[in-house]
Amino acid sequence: MTLFGYRLPRMASLVFWVLIWEIIGRFELVLLFPPFTEVIGAMGEVLTSSSFASAAAITAWTYVAGLGLAIVVGVIMGLLMGLVPALDRLLNMWVNIFVSAPLSALVPVIMILFGMGAPTVVVTVFMFAVWIIALDTRAGVLHISRSLIEMSHSFGASPLKRLEIVLLAALPEILAGIRLGVIRGVKGVVIGQLLVSIIGVGALFSLYSQNFLMAHFWALVLLLFAFALTLADLVARLEHRIEYYAGARH
Amino acid sequence: MTMALDDKAGDRSSDAPDGAGGAAPIVEVRGVAKHYDALVALDGIDLDFEAGRLTSLLGPSGCGKTTLLKIVAGLLEPTAGEVRVKGRPVSGPGPERAFVFQDFALLPWASVLRNAAFGLEVRGMPKAEREAIARRYVAEVGLSGFEEKYPHELSGGMRQRVGLARALAVDADVLLMDEPFSAVDEQTRRQFQEDLIRLREVENKTFLFVTHSIEEAVYLSDRIVLLSPRPGRVSRVIDLDIPRTGDPEAIRRDPVYLDMVDEIWRGLKHYVE
Amino acid sequence: MTSVQTSRADIGALATAVRRRAVGRAWRSAGWKVASLALLFGAWEIAGRSGFNFAFPTFFETMAALAEMLADGSMGAAYLRTAEPLVIGLVFSLVVGVAAGVSMGLRHDVEWFTLPVFIVMQAAPMAALIPLVTFVYGIGLTSKVLAVVILAMPVIAINSYKAVRNVPPSLRAMCRSFMGTRRQEIAKVVLPAASPMMFAGIRLGVAEGFSGVVLAELLITPTGIGDLITYHRSVAHFAHMYAAIFSIVLFAVLAVTILQWVETALFRPEKRSAA
């Protein structure tokens, strides 16, 4: 938007929202919001606490493990669905169901099967991220122009080489799927720990809410938000870098 | 809304004398320029468009021909200069002008009949009345029987016929056509061009026609305005005198037609790299 | 115009052929659906029978438990409880989300001011706020409604915004060129053109809303379907617990499917005529 001839930066309005938050907090208008400055103050305390360090470590490794697994399985599943029509017909319905199903409801099952610990969180991250990656990879493979496949065939490319061409040609959609998977995975890592509630940030959340530490709670929430947004932004940047050939493809 | 329509009907009867070949300019373009920040799309355009004639705006891509057409339509504001239609300065779209879009701009959720009646619908004409008028024009463009079909059930050529019926239905004096046949295949395109020539015999309208096809411009126009790119300027105005009665196919073999296509191509060649 | 007449006759013949092929296709796609169901449920049954985990019932045990819970009314009662926060939250999210999304799509100042908040809300793990909401608003209905809203509304708003933004500019120019007013442009062109993507967002929002209500019932206080899950887990009735989870997933899928059907029936005349 432009105001008096100045172009206002895109996300700058967040500053206003923070101000509104501060005012609401100062005058105790909505119980949910302690003053923003207080939250920032608590953030230092949260960041330096040893329990945060261990929670961050658990969050990070369960997230990376779950997401890595989801990318590998999702891309392979999507490739197979895109290349083998029979498999596509068998799996497409389930992938579509799981992409929009309330997966949180499955976490209790995962907890029983994998225990009240980190493996449950890994599986939750996996379950949240894998379906959208598979779906987008499939779309990418189906989207490849026929002439590209025929070209590689007519030039006598080996099956491995052909698979490589398929993978590279579908890369824009695969990355789009991974970006969504990254965002969903963050939701998974948080929901998983909230429901397990005795490890990682889940344990911290219960600690803060049992001790009525509102500002600490918000500080942790904001840290998680920042973590999610940074990751989403990183993948978006990566996506942007390969956009040049996505454009040339059509 | 009905007021505007009555107003227009009055205009029409008072302007009726200018029949085919009348020399009174119905659209006047005076010193029109269009800048997009540093880019000069159009610069110092002065043109008269005479009533009842078909004038093509021809030029390579980037010469601003569509921009000029949209300024005449009132869809874009010129940076400088003004456009007058029937003596009145243009400040936006008006009832005396109707636009035919390159990508058809049909509502996918509306039937052929509703699409053709859309111009009348936004003017607030009652449903029965506007559908009767639209039905007539749908038939005139050769689509009777397709009234209840939806755009996705039609071929590209048929879709553009709906776009044409929509523009005819509002009974404007000036039809502004933005590369109307560029999105259809070659056979349909030829059929369409021949139909347009026949249509001009029935409907006494002024046409402003944007195209990048030299053949199409020469085949259809009474006058061709050649535009040159960067900045968009009028480089040449050609009056054509090709007889268009009789066999429409014969025109494509007329030596005057062939020579003119050749001459314009030689003039435009140096813009093509 | 003879060419047009011939093409009409062709279209008639083509339509019959297309219809016949469509019937064949419908049968084949139903066959694949059955195979698809059989695949997953078969795998479930085999996994259950293999006894790899004491807490993993077979498919048929789960279905029997589902039938039992349906018959004794416990499931019906649970869904009545769950429906309350879900419906209130979804209606609120729908109204506010669509209104916010459409106004962001139409007005640059609203977009500048509001969009960043929704972008943050959509990308962030909003579920983390559920314990906080409980902490402030207690364990009642308000908290559960809020849990549904914070999960469902962002995706509805963002999709409505994108939908309005993606309306082809030539359609809007077309309306203006025929002297449509701004109000007509919005009502007759922008909203209908945006509705498919808006509905896609609403479907995602409904799915998120189901997630929200389940999370609320698992995290806040066990009521309704969350209570069924928690209770049967605590007394080790695993088949019943699986049946409850199965039913909520099924319910969400059904809700989304019904929504799609309503959309086609009410808003997409061109799809109906093609069928």
What does this structure look like?
The complex is a heterotrimer of chains A (250), B (273) and C (275). Chain A is an all-alpha fold and 250 residues long. Chain A has 12 helices and 2 strands, in the order ββαααααααααααα. Chain A has a two-stranded antiparallel sheet. In chain A, a hairpin with a 2-residue loop joins β1 and β2 (6-7). The longest helix of chain A has 34 residues, at 50-83. The two termini of chain A are 32 Å apart. Helix content of chain B is 37%, strand content 24%. Chain B has 10 helices and 10 strands. Chain B has helices at 2-15, 65-73, 112-116, 118-121, 127-140, 156-169, 186-202, 214-220, 248-251, 255-268; strands spanning 25-36, 39-50, 54-58, 80-85, 88-89, 97-100, 174-178, 206-211, 223-228, 233-239. Chain B has a 6-stranded mixed beta sheet, with helices on both faces. Chain B has a 4-stranded antiparallel beta sheet with strand order 2-1-4-5, with helices on one face. The longest helix of chain B is centred in the C-terminal third of the chain and has 17 residues, at 186-202. The model of chain B is unreliable at 1-22 (pLDDT under 50). With 275 residues, chain C is mainly α. In chain C, 87% of the residues lie in helices and 0% in strands. Chain C is built from 11 helices and no strands. Chain C has helices at 2-50, 59-71, 74-106, 108-123, 129-137, 141-165, 169-177, 182-219, 224-234, 238-267, 269-274. Chain C is flat and about 70 Å long. The model of chain C is unreliable at 1-6 (pLDDT under 50). Chains in contact: A-C, B-C. Chains A and C meet through α1, α4, α5, α9 and α10 of A and α1, α4, α5, α8 and α9 of C.
Short structural summary:
Chain B is an alpha/beta fold and about 270 residues long. Chain B is built from 10 helices and 10 strands. In chain B, the strands form 2 sheets. A 6-stranded mixed sheet of chain B has the order 6-7-8-3-9-10, with helices on both faces. Chain B has a 4-stranded antiparallel sheet with strand order 2-1-4-5, covered by helices on one side.
